[in-house]
Amino acid sequence: MNNTTVVPLPANLVPDYASPYWMNKGDNAWQLTAATLVGIQSVPGQVIFYGSIVKKKWAVNSALMALYAFAAVLPCWVGWGYRMSFGDGFVPFLGMPNVALDEKYLLKQSFNGAKFPNATMIYFQFVFAAITLVLIAGALLGRMNFYAWMLFVPLWLTFSYTLVCYSIWSPNGWLSQMGIVDFAGGFVVHIASGVAGFTAAFWVGPRIMKDRERFPPNNILLMLTGAGLQWMGWSGFNGGAPYVAGTDASLAILNTHVCTATSLLTWLLIDILFFRKPSVIGATQGMTTGLICITPAAGLVQNWAAIIMGILSGSIPWYTMMVLHKKIRLLKQVDDTMAVFHTHAVAGCLGAILVGFFADPKLCRLFFQVPGWEPYVGLAYAIPIGKYRVGMKQIGVQLLGVVFVILVNITMTSIICLLVRFVVPLRLTEDELQVGDNAIHGEEAYALWGDGERLETSIHGVDNFP
Questions:
Q1: So what's the pLDDT on residue 158?
Q2: How far is residue 32's CA from residue 170's CA, in Å, rounded to a whole number?
Q3: N or C of the chain: less Cβ packing under 10 Å?
Q4: Chain CA centroid to CA 436, Å
Q5: Could you say which DSSP state residue 440 is in?
């Protein structure tokens, strides 16, 4: 036994490697919490939502598409995706591909002076990348070959998501340096997923006619559970965007819920006016469009602006979905199962433009940590002070970003779908489309007597128990 006496060093001399001088424990704890809230939006949020809002025969397949996407993104993200999105510049639209698994790299301070390590940032950004792929799946439910989906996820993350993410969110990105405003993912997540989902749906083709004509949810109450997880999880989605557990995060969370509630109520009232019935599914659509519309603006606009954005997000996507969709030939031809084009692309574009109008320069300075009035000034604030050109420039940069995201996602998603089609069919066989889950996975979500199931006659090992 070693009897050597160990004399402890004074506390002020002990190096605190677990909490280096540059790290703020509160910021780090909030960032990890916010990331987990965003993760819960996908698993179990979107898994439950997709699995319950579809026809019963597609419940397992739809849930598994979301679950697989979430899992498959992570190894790609730490392997090369994160450094392509936030690493050293490689080309104007992309960072240098590199792994993000080295211990020294993971424990270093993250970019832009964030007071937490790279490991926290990688985790936080991963859940955003993952939910983007999960949202794309919504446009493809009920007919995409699962093996094709398994190939599509890592390819799209690598060649589409990273391009947009680096250009808009990386400090070195060309749109970032032009002064584009995307508080928490209106461009990177929602416009991208809406356009990519719609494009992929075009290449995969529609569901069988029987499913297109009648596609009732198999469990509306469970669908509401998934929707509720998405709504509450959005506190982390938008509240984590400032990378600081501060006042801007508080404002972002409040604005998020104000806009969402306003949008839901607006959509519900329009449904009542036109259809004479308040629709639960309609309410969730209004909830979704409100969440998405406020995302690029959450911590950059005043509360009154969030209410206006909620009214617009509850009415404009309703109009495009219920009216324009039936008049525009392309929209009618493409079978977008969960209407991600309307709920994500349209609502995302709406929020991206409205933040260029309503962005408060004081809040922008707080978020972007830049002095003076420029370059982040909403047009509504620029006109009264005689700086309308600065405000118009902000609108122009926002529109340029919208066009860029649309073009990148149409192009890259089309190329990826065509490449995947050379390996495996994009679409399930006709027999699989008729049967659904049991033909694809050998599993079903529910065992019901009405489907030919027999009452079990064996209890606790005793046969023919009455």
A1: 96
A2: 20
A3: N
A4: 27
A5: H
Asked if the bond preceding 375 is cis, omega within 30° of 0, the reply is yes
Residue 457 lies in a domain: no
- Res 14: pLDDT: 45
This prediction's pTM:
0.91
Q: Which of 157, 150, 151, 87 is nearest to 128 (CA)?
A: 157
Say what the pLDDT of residue 9 is. 47
Instruction: Report yes or no on 403 lying in a domain.
Output: yes
User: 146-179: per-residue pLDDT in tens?
Assistant: 999 999 999 999 999 999 999 999 999 999 999 9
The letter for the amino acid at 464 is: N
Omega within 30 of 0 (cis) for the link into 44? yes
- Say if 73 falls within a structural domain: yes
pLDDT for 267 equals 97
d(C-alpha 88, C-alpha 93), whole Å = 11
Beta bridge partners, 463, equal 458
pLDDT at 450: 52
Domain count, the chain: 1
In a domain, 447, yes or no: no
pLDDT digits (tens, 9 = 90+) for 308-353: 999 999 999 999 999 999 999 989 999 999 999 999 999 999 999 9
Nearest C-alpha neighbor of 336 from the set 73, 143, 155, 118: 143
Q: In a 3-state reduction of DSSP, which class is residue 284? A: helix
Tell me the C-alpha distance between 101 and 99, whole Å. Answer: 6
Angle at 342 between CA 433 and CA 145, to 5 degrees: 25
Tell me if 96 sits within 8 A of 89, measured CB to CB.
yes
| CB of 105 closer than 8 Å to CB of 304 | no
Helix (H, G, I), strand (E, B) or coil at 91: strand
Domain, as residue range, for 194:
26-430
β-partners of residue 95 are 89
If DSSP codes are grouped into helix, strand and coil, which group holds residue 214?
coil
Q: If we measure between CA atoms, which residue out of 56, 45, 38 comes closest to residue 226?
A: 45
What is the model's pLDDT at position 376? 84
Task: Report the SS3 class of residue 208.
Answer: coil
What sections of 372-450 are H helices per DSSP?
A: 379-382, 388-423, 430-435, 437-441
Low-confidence ranges of the chain (pLDDT < 70): 1-17, 371-375, 448-466
Cα 304-306-310 angle, rounded to 5 deg: 120
Q: What is the reported pLDDT for 448?
A: 60
* Beta-carbon-side half-sphere exposure of residue 331 (alpha carbons within 13 Å): 16
Q: What is the CATH number of the domain that holds 343?
A: 1.10.3430.10
Sequence-separated (6 or more) residues with CB below 8 Å from residue 443? 60, 437
Output the pLDDT for position 464. 42
